[in-house]
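Example 3.2
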Amino acid sequence: MPEQLNARVEACYQMAESFFQRRFPRPEVSFRLRGQKAGVAHLDENLLRFNPQLYRENREHFLKQTVAHEVAHLIAHQMFGPRIRPHGEEWQLIMRGVYGLPPDRCHTYEIKRRRATRYIYRCRCDENPDFPFSAQRHNLVAQGRRYYCRRCRTTLVFTGQVVRE
C-alpha cells in the first residue's frame, strides 16, 4: 500500500475532525480495485478501495482529489446518516467546506482498455454470419450452453477462428 495514499487518507480525516469537532473511525484501505473506477467507498464496512493503475498514472491529482472524494463519502455517511444522496448537498459541503475542492462526481483519467480475445461463431444465414463471443461466453458453450441466431434460429457454431482486439 503506498505510504503517500495512506498519509493523504489520514490528512483528510484530520481536516474533517477539525472542521466538525469530533473524531471519526479510520477506514480499512484497500488497493484492490480494477476497471474504470478510481475509488470506491463502502459505507457500511467503513472501507475505501482504490485503483492502483489509475493511482500510478495520475498520482498527484489522485492523491488530492480522488482520495478526498472517497473519504468525503465516509464522512458524510457518518455525519448525516445512510439516507443522503451519494453526491448530494452533504457530500458537496464536505468537498468544498472541509477540503476546499470542487465536488466533481467523476474523474477524467484516461482508461487503457485491455486487449480482448474474441471467439468467432457462425450461423447459417447470410445476413450477419459472424458472432464474436467473449472468453466467458465461449467457456459457457464448452460447458454445454447453446446460443441461437435470432434471424434463422440455428445454433451458433464455433468456427475455430480467434481474434485479438
